[in-house]
């Protein structure tokens, strides 16, 4: 019975191509469950304007908090020697991964404080791991059979509480969701059947996705764990057709590209392609760079040292490169099992926000310019907005002189440094543009600086890509 209900819900929005093309105006806006049709959907404006979001990896893996969030798979799936040895030295032979769950207490979790930090970071959206590959859900999923945050561990709806707090701060809320689970018997059975059966999809994956959308109305659905099976097994196109046509977030939701083997970098509202994806060039399709402050793990690691964390300058560099090339940056933190955002993560987020307070004009609602990185001076990345061109300078110029090749000034050009009260002196010749910076002690902020150039010659970019 449960399986039949799910299939009816998912199949509801299906229309033939003929019905969609020849029907009335409302039908003409509907999407059939075919990639060629789903791909014609225009991405909601808010996502391209936002540019910067926060990713949160939180779950039972936050309890052992060593190696990575793949701890369970590395321990009992891959049997990685150092992980196996760690468990032998610190836990009894009868200890199971499920025994970590009661220690996932989240007793210090304050969703309002988390949301305040995210707001202060300058991020415009937040994406929480609703369920990682371990299968533990951070909301009381009806399909989780007790393996969720309300039935064990925190004994509260972590996802629901954070969703309320984030939206109260006027940030967009999204969810990461793993389509598969390492050790779920239903999934293993389907895999052993060469994915010709779909019990796991019908009884687990789809009910969870429907619950998340209907109950929490996320505006980002960040799918993952799809790579072992084709999209037809996952019923992905049927789900997306329902999401775009009939769901409560159909007007504003965006999805990534991880919906089945071979689908990443080909289909979806935005492409993620691979973790930490940064092509360094302008792409024709909207994309996102999901990356971690901790270089080696998405989840919290109590064994991490200072050198394992990206500096604020490195994070701003990543943001500048990403936005210049048309992407969004989704920057990840891993909270502790007791619900804290550790000070080094908080510091990085706050410093990002302080930089964006001064320089956000070059980031939010911007578009790529005709050049991305300056063709002669590396470390200067361009964006444009409202007819102005911005150069994000990732170093302090030697002798306060910045040389650029790509901008062509006119006799009306004015160049300013964001956060600095006076315009900057400049001159140009056949070698390029020379800009005089103030002394470093007078310049605003640190880490990177942004010049704003008005009335450039030929400052319109080439034909815009569709986003």
UniProtKB/TrEMBL annotation:
Protein's name according to its UniProt entry: Putative alpha-L-fucosidase
UniProt cross-references to Pfam families, sorted A to Z: Alpha_L_fucos (PF01120), Fucosidase_C (PF16757)
Feature type site, description May be important for catalysis: 290
BP terms from Gene Ontology: fucose metabolic process; glycoside catabolic process
Domain Alpha-L-fucosidase C-terminal: 372-454
EC number: 3.2.1.51
Keywords (A to Z) from UniProt: Glycoprotein, Glycosidase, Hydrolase, Signal
Native organism taxonomy: Eukaryota, Metazoa, Ecdysozoa, Arthropoda, Crustacea
A cellular component term, taken from the record's GO annotations: lysosome
Reported function: Alpha-L-fucosidase is responsible for hydrolyzing the alpha-1,6-linked fucose joined to the reducing-end N-acetylglucosamine of the carbohydrate moieties of glycoproteins.
MF annotations from Gene Ontology: alpha-L-fucosidase activity
Annotated source species: Artemia franciscana
Residue ranges constituting the Glycoside hydrolase family 29 N-terminal domain according to the UniProt record: 28-361
């Amino acid at each position: 019975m449960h399986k039949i209900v799910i299939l009816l819900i998912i199949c509801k929005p299906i229309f033939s191509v003929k019905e969609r093309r020849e029907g009335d105006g409302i039908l003409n806006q509907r999407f059939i469950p075919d990639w060629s049709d789903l791909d014609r959907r225009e991405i909601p404006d808010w996502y391209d304007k936002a540019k910067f979001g926060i990713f949160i990896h939180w779950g039972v893996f936050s309890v052992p908090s060593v190696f990575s969030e793949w701890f369970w798979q590395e321990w009992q799936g891959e049997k990685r020697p150092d992980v196996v040895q760690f468990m032998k030295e610190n836990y009894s032979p009868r200890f199971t991964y499920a025994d970590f769950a009661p220690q996932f207490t989240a007793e210090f979790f304050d969703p309002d404080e988390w949301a305040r930090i995210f707001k202060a970071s300058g991020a415009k959206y937040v994406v929480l791991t609703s369920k990682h590959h371990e299968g533990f859900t951070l909301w009381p999923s009806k399909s989780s059979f007790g393996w969720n945050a309300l039935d064990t561990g925190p004994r509260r709806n972590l996802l629901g509480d954070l969703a309320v707090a984030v939206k109260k701060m006027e940030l967009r809320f999204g969810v990461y969701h793993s389509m598969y689970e390492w050790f779920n018997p239903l999934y293993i059975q389907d895999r052993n059947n060469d994915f010709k059966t779909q019990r796991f999809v019908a009884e687990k994956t789809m009910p969870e996705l429907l619950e998340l959308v209907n109950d929490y109305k996320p505006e980002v659905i960040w799918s993952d764990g799809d790579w072992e099976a084709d999209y037809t097994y996952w019923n992905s196109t049927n789900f997306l057709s329902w999401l775009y046509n009939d769901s409560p977030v159909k007007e504003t939701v965006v999805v990534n590209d991880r919906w089945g083997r071979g689908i990443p970098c080909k289909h979806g509202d935005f492409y993620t392609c691979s973790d930490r994806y940064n092509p360094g060039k302008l792409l024709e399709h909207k994309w996102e760079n999901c990356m971690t402050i901790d270089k080696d793990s998405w989840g919290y690691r109590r064994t991490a040292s200072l050198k394992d964390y990206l500096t604020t300058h490195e994070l701003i560099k990543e943001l500048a490169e990403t936005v210049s090339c048309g992407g969004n940056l989704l920057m990840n933190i891993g909270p502790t099992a007791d619900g804290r955002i550790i000070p080094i993560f908080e510091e990085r987020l706050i410093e990002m926000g302080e930089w964006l307070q001064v320089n956000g004009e070059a980031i939010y609602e911007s578009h790529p310019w005709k050049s991305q990185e300056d063709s002669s001076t590396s470390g200067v990345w361009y964006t444009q907005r409202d007819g102005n061109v911005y150069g994000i300078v990732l170093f302090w110029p030697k002798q306060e002189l910045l040389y650029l090749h790509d901008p062509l000034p006119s006799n009306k050009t004015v160049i300013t440094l964001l956060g600095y009260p006076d315009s900057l002196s400049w001159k140009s010749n056949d070698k390029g543009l020379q800009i005089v910076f103030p002394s470093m002690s007078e310049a605003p902020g640190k880490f990177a600086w942004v010049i704003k150039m008005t009335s450039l010659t030929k400052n319109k970019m080439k034909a815009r890509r569709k986003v």
